[in-house]
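Contributing new complexes? Match this layout with magnesium ion.
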Amino acid sequence: MPSRTMIEAIRSAMDVSMERDDKVVVFGEDVGFFGGVFRCTEGLQKKYGASRCFDAPISESGIVGAAVGMAAYGLRPVAEIQFADYMYPGYDQIVSEAARLRFRTAGDFTAPMVVRMPCGGGIFGGQTHSQSPEALFTHVSGLKTVIPSNPYDAKGLLISAIEDDDPVIFLEPKRLYNGPFDGHHDRPVVPWSKHDLSEVPDGHYTVPIGKAVVRREGSAVTVLAYGTMVHVAEAAANDTGIDAEIIDLRTLMPLDIDTIVRSVEKTGRCVVVHEATRTSGFGAELAAEVQERCFYHLEKPVQRVTGWDTPYPHVHEWEYFPGPKRVGEALIEATAKD
Amino acid sequence: MPSRTMIEAIRSAMDVSMERDDKVVVFGEDVGFFGGVFRCTEGLQKKYGASRCFDAPISESGIVGAAVGMAAYGLRPVAEIQFADYMYPGYDQIVSEAARLRFRTAGDFTAPMVVRMPCGGGIFGGQTHSQSPEALFTHVSGLKTVIPSNPYDAKGLLISAIEDDDPVIFLEPKRLYNGPFDGHHDRPVVPWSKHDLSEVPDGHYTVPIGKAVVRREGSAVTVLAYGTMVHVAEAAANDTGIDAEIIDLRTLMPLDIDTIVRSVEKTGRCVVVHEATRTSGFGAELAAEVQERCFYHLEKPVQRVTGWDTPYPHVHEWEYFPGPKRVGEALIEATAKD
Amino acid sequence: MTEFAPLSLHVPTRPSPQDNATIDTSRLSPAGAVRRPAVDVDPTEIHDLAYKLVRVLDENGEAQGEWAAALEPDVLRKGLRDMMKTRAYDQRMMRLQRQGLTSFYMQCTGEEAVACAFQSVLEKGDMNFPTYRQQGLLIAQDWPVVDMVNQILSNSADRIKGRQLPVMYSAKEAGFFSISGNLGTQYIQAVGWAMASAIRNDTRVAAAWIGDGSTAESDFHAALVFASVYRPPVILNVVNNQWAISSPQSIAGGERTTFAARAHGYNIPSLRVDGNDYLAVKAVSEWAVERARRNLGPTLIEWVTYRVAPHSTSDDPSKYRAKDASAAWPLGDPITRLKTHLIARGEWSEERSVQLEAELDQEIAAAAQEARGFGTLHDGPKQSPATMFEDVYKDMPRHLREQRQKLGY
Amino acid sequence: MTEFAPLSLHVPTRPSPQDNATIDTSRLSPAGAVRRPAVDVDPTEIHDLAYKLVRVLDENGEAQGEWAAALEPDVLRKGLRDMMKTRAYDQRMMRLQRQGLTSFYMQCTGEEAVACAFQSVLEKGDMNFPTYRQQGLLIAQDWPVVDMVNQILSNSADRIKGRQLPVMYSAKEAGFFSISGNLGTQYIQAVGWAMASAIRNDTRVAAAWIGDGSTAESDFHAALVFASVYRPPVILNVVNNQWAISSPQSIAGGERTTFAARAHGYNIPSLRVDGNDYLAVKAVSEWAVERARRNLGPTLIEWVTYRVAPHSTSDDPSKYRAKDASAAWPLGDPITRLKTHLIARGEWSEERSVQLEAELDQEIAAAAQEARGFGTLHDGPKQSPATMFEDVYKDMPRHLREQRQKLGY
Ligand SMILES: Cc1ncc(C[n+]2csc(CCOP(=O)(O)OP(=O)(O)O)c2C)c(N)n1
Ligand SMILES: Cc1ncc(C[n+]2csc(CCOP(=O)(O)OP(=O)(O)O)c2C)c(N)n1
Ligand SMILES: [Mg+2]
Ligand SMILES: [Mg+2]
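Output block (do not edit by hand):
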């Protein structure tokens, strides 16, 4: 099986989907001729023509709104928002329209569409190229929110998202596009080819939406992570030598609560990690659920390791980013015998 | 002291502020000549002229964006969004601009402004006149989020918000505009004049942002509530006879965690209530914080009583609304001896 | 530092309460005065039409000029009936709301011609993206009134299960896209739908609808940009009824220009039309739909009309406009105008009108009665609360099943 | 069902790689050909100017027509110097970025005249709301280059404490509003600022800046609507450099019309101007600022120019436009054009140019050197991480103090 970067895997997912179903169309800013600023759609316009893969005006509201209309017509649009930080002008169309269409029409109209967006930090992108707005989607009923941590999942989940009959927000941790970044920014860059999960089949396959996976088994503490933080958590476990069980959530909504509960009941300790700001981040939801469902198994409070409650800074990238050191400290604290 | 409805209290806050500081300007859809669809700005245009209180085009993005520019100039704009459900087109200006201006300029430019919006359900308003989007603001660093539960606080908090040097989201539970609704929708409507906290001084006073208040002392369980749910929680405590301590948060960000911790350490039990959908609602943040800070005092998991994870329905208003019955059940469960 | 006088803010003045017309009469062209361009006209050649007013019916009810088509009397009688039925429907629904059978209602009084005539030129499969004031689109296609009333009453037979505020209809089969409640959002969706039709090499067209006030919303611009770039088969309707709740159209930027003119900067052809003139509406709609159908791209049409009724049942216009402002019917009552035309042609009479009115009132009353049998907002059969958890997603996820159980279902 | 052929989607064609000009030459008026209206002209009387191009300098460097003003040689030499300094600055910053001293940079090569000439007509206290391609606004007012480089390097002396991506300057004192990073948002803010100036009976004016691509954003429309309604003292600048990253201006809706024409539907006067012609930019800027200052309201100006450089240091234009597209300088190099004019007037020489270039390079290099002394993104002194928690709010709330402690400060 060929080794693929996350970019190649994502591109392949769209390619396979466009090939199988001519109702799949792909568009967004710089997505057509150029193939996207991260090159995720490279070659698709050439292969499928400009009516199925095209450039869009710089209007996130227009992009999402047009996608809602296309989806209502019966297409399966895959819209790209150039950076998650720029989704806000399209947020109304996502929240008030895509998310609610099925409900408010009792299923008469639906919005089977995917909104892809690169998210997360670690690239010195400053406040407008680093955000992780997942909690702004998980609070909205009617949306599914997916975030892969590796090429295999990225392709399988994106195909699932495109085939899903509900609107899916597909967050792509941009720091993972070209390699499995574990937060050790001072070490040499590792390419995907060195990672097992870059083995990506050529053709069609799916990874189910709504299913988490245990990335690393352990008994001392459960770590709930997604996207880049899965790799950071692994590094933290290795660095500290703590026998952590690391769960890659993959889908935030609907959440695979069973996998989480099973693990926390086993370990009795739980650390939640994400890049987004702490207050009202998705970690709050995870902590709230875990303490509610596993209260009598918990030996320590659920801890959150997150981005600070500040806008994403430029020069302090690594002081802001919740790297292996901070996650490691939380693991130590969570497993300490008092 | 005159008894005032919440509407009158809010109007008085703007009146007093405009009188004291001619940099305060008030605008929004139907806000000028008509005085707002809820009449909160009635008479202000007449008194202060059309340059200080005026109608705005139906463009929430324009309203908030213009307010940011006015605030950067040195005014203190108070913008009204007709319903919180319609704030989404202005969300980018709130999140990417108002909230970050001070940080990204190291204080060179600031956005001292207030965005008022009626929120919450209980009026058969359907999905677009009933939402409680507070968690979408509390996740955003740089914003303060305030939500009063009575006329006295509404006036004092709104004056504080207008005088605050940071952008403040001011949520007004519309079901409270004309009376202290406790969720017993089948009982006769109670006017504010029957409620102590409708005694509102004529002139200038403030209620500090960032301070919660214990509305009802008790020892059996702590209830964290805000807006309409304060009254619902009181009803639930009375209905069940449970000795609940009810905290009216008043400000969600910055949160008065001390008052919360003090109470939960005393009661050992905690129920969080809000109207917003459950997943990633502000209750998640409260539960996460409480379990983290009061873990060894908690005898039961923190419970959340919230709106369901569906769009706000029309016909099922009362099945959706977290009324005294559901809150009461949670109180019973939280205080049950197992 | 400067020789300049102090600046001051311009806040548009309001229409004087004395001036009942509240319509800028300087831009009212006489019936028949405006030319009818070819459907493939270059948009720049008809910029002037954005500042005029296409009218067909003159004061005597005669059809005038190039836009006057030879229409069968039956077609016009159907149009008259549609408008009268729409008004009868509004009146009945107002009554139901006042009786407390539902929470809310919105009339389209005075604007019936716009939706009714527009619908008459569409084909099955075309899709409207309406606002809450186009009930005429359903009525003109003889959509079952019972079905509409069921939605108004949020009852057990409501096809959208009581989920939406009354008047927020949805009926795919009728080419009637779900009304959102959030203003403007549907405008770009219509463009997206039309783009999809073009992508699929279909022949169906879309129609977007928006009010004068809502043209200020962001999605109006998004729609025009996308329509300009991809030239999809869409008709961009702006219903200028002069008011947005309490705000006159000047607050939306209509003080010294027209909403039709907005299209110019996007190279989209546009027309300004007397929306109370059934014949003008029908003729211009036909023209625009033909353009769309021939792959000639979008057309923007400003329908000039007047909101005779209050904004909604929650509104009290006496607080912001002269009490008799609506009574003046600035452009005339569209129903009366078409009736006069038919009578002038010898195809109708006052008696038949009176009779039809009674008949329609009967018909609507019967439908309302039937709908009440399925329950009302507060009484009788209604959707089970269990249904509240359905259709959030196609398949109900676990957390919603849990929540449903918690509610006891 | 229908006699119509299948629809198809129009996707704008791209400028042919052969056609280096990539500017629609059909709309290029000769120098001096466009009239100069009175500042209080009715917007409808100058609609034609949105489809022409105000140019002053002809091919021989002579100033032509009604827009040509009698300008002192010193003023023009200052203009030349500003543009050359801007270019020297860009070149030096590119070098710093390539050396890894910072993360990112964006040049304005070819567009220097727009910002430099515009700034020259403003007064102290006026406020620009720029995009990332108006470094000329700072340089033309002789803002300390060290201060700018400090921001580029996110170092210990960076006035915005390393918080923003390089090029996202902010300097209130310089009338330079903070650059956001989110496109379009500042356009309506400028309108709001100008409304505030009018509300306060001030005499200061605001200038909004946006790129061709970003005119598609919602806030462009919001700005035009508010500007149309309240007529505040604001200049609405659209810098049409033909490209938005890889997307030609046709993707923003400029295929068959101009961005200046967008203003017509809002009754805002607009002009289309040769942005590579320092004299034209200065003359039209003066006209628009005078309008604003005289309380005559907003003006929209489309500056036609060309993005000679890549979009940013993250961009590779060879993937989407002809390799030599930029080398052709479709409208000429603004620096060369002004230089030729000065030489033609006998007020300048090639030698002085060469000398000035060297001098400016020196000056910038020295400033860059000085700035490096305050640290760079990855090396040397920088802001303490403790500062990261400041300025989120005026007073640091408890949770941020806790988080700062957690980080060890
Ligand atoms: C995004 C949004 N903002 C505000 C509102 C509140 N609102 C409902 S109708 C209305 C006036 C709309 O006026 P117009 O577009 O002229 O339509 P008309 O009512 O005249 O048909 C307003 C402000 C809303 N529904 N959605
Ligand atoms: C809201 C938003 N969407 C997308 C982007 C990404 N982006 C940055 S620059 C750019 C192109 C802008 O083109 P234009 O407005 O023509 O300005 P130019 O770069 O040519 O000066 C894009 C799409 C952004 N910064 N903000
Ligand atoms: Mg209207
Ligand atoms: Mg550009």
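Reviewers usually confirm one structural detail per submission. For this one: The pocket of magnesium ion (ligand 3) is lined by residues C 211-213, 241, 243-244, 307 (CB under 6 Å).
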